[in-house]
Specification:
The chain is mainly alpha-helical. The protein has 7 helices and 2 strands, in the order αααββαααα. It is elongated, with a radius of gyration of 18 Å.
Length: 146
């Protein structure tokens, strides 16, 4: 299973904010540090803010901060919110699979997907930033000698 770019960015952004206590980076700064387009980062920030996982304030003294809900959010729940709960493969749609009515693969893939989420469900964003990850996250976007 491969995560969407927005899911990956959401997780990395939440992890980054979890280790930047007191700092309030802007969306533009985070996008530059993570080497992603600003527009993509802004969409992810808006969704995370809508979910109550981070606060985004504009203007002087503004920036991004992780909420307590964001720190304790389940990694599995964050992934589900970005990936959706649809099937791993599209069995119906414009060109439906002829095996659809008697397919055993669809059920096996569904169980594998649920096992994937079940592995992530007990983990929180806070868990993801313990050493050695947290200190490394603080170095992202800093050039040599910074």
């Amino acid at each position: 299973m491969r995560l969407l770019r927005s899911t990956d960015l959401a997780l990395r952004l939440l992890m980054r904010l979890a280790v930047t206590e007191g700092a309030t980076p802007t969306t533009r700064e985070v996008a530059a540090d993570m080497d992603v387009p600003y527009t993509h980062a802004a969409k992810v920030v808006a969704e995370l803010q809508h979910q109550g996982l981070l606060d985004a304030r504009r203007g002087r003294g503004g920036g991004l901060t992780l909420t307590e809900k964001g720190r304790t959010a389940s990694v599995g729940a964050v992934v589900r919110s970005f990936e959706g709960t649809g099937d791993v493969v599209e069995c119906e749609g414009d060109n439906p699979c002829p095996l659809n009515s008697a397919c055993r693969l669809r059920g096996a893939l569904r169980r594998a997907q649920e096992a994937f989420y079940a592995t992530l469900d007990p983990l929180t964003i806070g868990d993801m930033v313990t050493a050695p990850t947290g200190p490394l996250l603080l170095q992202i976007g800093r050039g040599p000698g910074s």
